[in-house]
Amino acid sequence: MPIEKFIKIQSSAVPVDIENIDTDQIIPARFLKAIERKGFGNNLFRDWRYDKSNNIISSFPLNQVKYSGQILIGGKNFGSGSSREHAAWALYDYGFKVVVSSFFADIFKGNALNNGLLPVQVTSAELSEIFETIDADTQATFTVDLVHETFTIDNSEKVIDFEINPYKKECLLNGYDDIDYLLSLKKEIEIFESKERYG
Amino acid sequence: MSQPTTLFDKIWDGHTVKSIEYGPSVLYIDRHYIHEVTSPVAFLGLEKRGLNVANPQKTTATPDHNIPTQDQHLSIQDILSRNQVDMLMKNCKNHNIPLYGLNHKWQGIVHVIGPELGLTKPGMTIVCGDSHTSTHGAFGCVAFGIGTSEVEMVLGTQCIMQPKPKKMRIKIDGILSKGVTAKDIALYIISQISTSGGTGYFIEYAGSAIEGLTMEGRMTLCNMSIESGARGGLIAPDQTTFDYLSERQFSPKNKKWEDAITKWALLKTDEDASFDKEYLFHAQDIEPMITFGTNPGMGTGVTGHIPLTASLAEGERVTYEKSLQYMGFNDGDKLQGKSIDYVFVGSCTNGRIEDLREFAHFIKGKKKADNITAWIVPGSKQVEAQAQEEGLIAVMEAAGFKLRQPGCSACLAMNDDKIPAGKYAVSTSNRNFEGRQGPGARTLLASPLVAAACAISGKITDPREYLN
User: Fold this and answer.
1) Residues facing B280 on adjacent strands
2) DSSP single-letter state for residue B101
3) A84 neighbors A34 (Cβ within 8 angstroms)
4) In the prediction, which pLDDT does A52 show?
5) Among all residues of chain A, which has the CA nearest to that of B46?
6) Is B319 on the interface with A (CB under 8 A)?
7) How far apart are CA B326 and CA B305, in angstroms?
8) B160 — phi, psi (to 5°)?
């Protein structure tokens, strides 16, 4: 199905300054039993948001009213581990449109892009600066401009360039998905299929 | 003369239907494995688009992630799990996809049954909505895990869009010491290059220590490639590969077999081919390994100590301390001798017949420690049957262990096999993330041999103490 278009957003951000946030933390396996794609946001970071008796863990940033917005800022190596696309679904369903980190795991990055969730990779120095900005002003806003591939810290007007594959950029700007494109290649795939190859 | 190329390039380029300038490749997929958890939404997507499965015979299904490992002949008690398994059956029936369901003699963990049925063959491109699809690289395949949108793509078109990864070669030369296995190689590599060291790369494993591994060992190693961040890892096929595949259910037969091995023998990296990154490790530097933290890179030799927080870069210390706090450990602690509660042997990493053999041979004539709850879970019905035939089940029962029924089980605790909060489990699986084996569970990853030694002594133990 077509994904939601992404062009530009301005929003405050939620900081989760932890490295190696794996997809088991983003959405624990016991919540993967649905047969439809809905409601995953309720269980986003479940075991970091709630303790075993289902009490809210007030120190976790998602539970702190001072933090809000459509941008999640995560530590280095975000989205490692399991290939579960439910991680991207849970983030998106919760209301995030952008995840910023200094390093993303490959499968997570692909899953995010396939769902209209934009991964923005910055340097570790820039990531620290973003965390510091939110530390100083929890409602600080950021502008993410996909057309120009820029992430702006609005308070300081600092502009950070980020990169995105041109094909994926086109998809996000227009709300296209890969399957539409692959279906348009039907003939070429059939010709390829009839050729001999390894395996 | 053509440019020297790597094995990875040969397979990837040979399956590229089309390359988009500055964009991903359109890659043709030879085999698609599916299971109950990551496929239902993909089938729903197909239906919404009014599409059929492009190539049902190139798709193979089995339930494994959420199924119980006891009383499989009864209806699944957990309603949500049962719904997912029923949905898989319904989707496979509607789309004519071969399914090895619960109680079928070929059912099992998807990455165990593919190779043992001979469905995985050298030179193939293989995907599955599961990150441990990298396992199949052991046969000289480009095999990697995908998300559900991509499962839908492959079901609908037999193709996937993927940016081509960079190439890494990890060579391990020399001979492994006694008590050191493929799992230890995997945990050693990740402890050296970290859980993000492989991100953006596809790994080729090479060197004499790799060539000396059995197919089961190669699968364990390639399986853990994803834990270094790499999309996959592969090993050039050789006589060991051909011997394993010979006479499997779906292996080519007679003249076709002869033709196949002639073709497969060409699958290797050219002498002067270049890689984007290379590592060389020495087999004799590798000890039996165990992890102490909450990612697979936090591992050390079983005789080692937990590294001091002060020895880490300043930026890494907060995450490191959080991890040790979760595990209930202090930096500087010696691991050997720490008491544990559970032992889990199984998963797509170490649930094959060779793993059960190693475990059984080790515990033969010994007794399970009283403080240990042990879950020994075969990777498939065929592994279970072979364990019975070889007398391994009897050996285990005499030592106080019971073999459960096949499934992913406590590796990710989607079924009832959950390690209770705060308890320590030495596990032969692949991930020690917080809560991976159940909320609050504390996982220590290790080989089946280390797990066996721990199960006998009730604490973290070096298996070499028992080996002579």
Assistant:
1) B171
2) -
3) no
4) 87
5) A1
6) yes
7) 17
8) -140, 150
- The backbone region for B175, taken as left when phi is positive above 0, alpha when psi lies in -120 to 50, beta otherwise, is beta
**Segments of chain A assigned E as strands:** 8-16, 71-74, 98-101, 118-121, 141-145, 150-153, 158-161
Inform me whether the pLDDT recorded for A198 exceeds 70.
Answer: no
Residue A198 burial class via C-beta count within 10 angstroms: exposed 0-12, middle 13-18, buried 19 and up: buried
Residue stretches of chain B with pLDDT short of 50: none
pLDDT surpassing 70 at residue A189: yes
Is residue A98 pLDDT above 70, yes or no? yes
Q: Could you give the count of Cα atoms lying within 13 Å of A22 in the half-sphere of its Cβ?
A: 25
H-type helices in A14-146, by residue range?
23-26, 46-49, 86-94, 106-113, 124-136
Q: How far apart are CA B374 and CA B400, in angstroms?
A: 9
Structural contact between residues A10 and A154, judged by C-beta atoms closer than 8 angstroms: yes
Which residues, in sequence order, are bridge partners of residue A153? A142, A158
Confidence of residue A2 (pLDDT cuts 50, 70, 90): confident
- The verdict on a CB contact (< 8 Å) between A178 and B149 is yes
Mode of pairing for the β-strands spanning B159-162 and A141-145: unpaired
CB B42 within 8 A of CB B389: no
Output the six-digit token pair for B375: 């879950």
Amino acid at A151: F
Best to test chain B binding among A3, A35, A50, A181 (most B CBs inside 10 Å): A35
- Take residue B380 and report the two structure tokens written for it: 């498939």
Rounded to the nearest 10 degrees, the angle between the axes of helix B381-389 and helix B353-363 is 40
**Sign of the torsion formed by the C-alpha atoms of A129, A130, A135 and A138:** positive
Give me the amino acid identity at B368: K
The CA distances from residue A105 to B2, B124, B173, B378, in Å, are: 34, 24, 29, 30
For B230, name the nearest residue in chain A, comparing CA atoms only.
A106
Please say whether the beta carbons of B138 and B215 come within 8 A: yes
CB-closest option in A1, A47, A183 to B439: A47
CA atoms of B211 and B214, how far apart (whole Å)? 8
Spatial contact of B127 and B145, defined as CB atoms under 8 Å apart: yes
- The pTM of the whole model exceeds 0.90: yes
Measured between alpha carbons, how far is residue A13 from residues A64, B221, B251, B394 in Å?
12, 39, 54, 58
Buried b (16+ CB within 10 A) or exposed e, A12-26: bbbbbbbbbbbbbbb
**On the CB side of A41, how many CA atoms lie within 13 Å of its CA?**
11
Where are the extended beta strands (E) located within B151-301?
159-162, 166-173, 201-206, 232-234, 277-282, 289-291, 299-301
Band of the pLDDT at A199, cuts 50, 70, 90? Answer: low
> How would residue A1 be classed by pLDDT, with cut points 50, 70 and 90?
low
Cβ atoms of residues B148 and A27 within 8 Å: no
Residue B267 near chain A (CB below 8 Å) = yes
Whole-angstrom distance between the N-terminal and C-terminal Cα of chain A? 32
Q: What is the mean pLDDT of chain A?
A: 95
* SS3 annotation, B373-387: EEEECCCEHHHHHHH
Which residues in chain A have their CB less than 8 angstroms from residue B48's CB? 1
In the block, residue with structure tokens 């010491």:
B177
Phi, psi of B125, rounded to the nearest 5 degrees: -100, 130
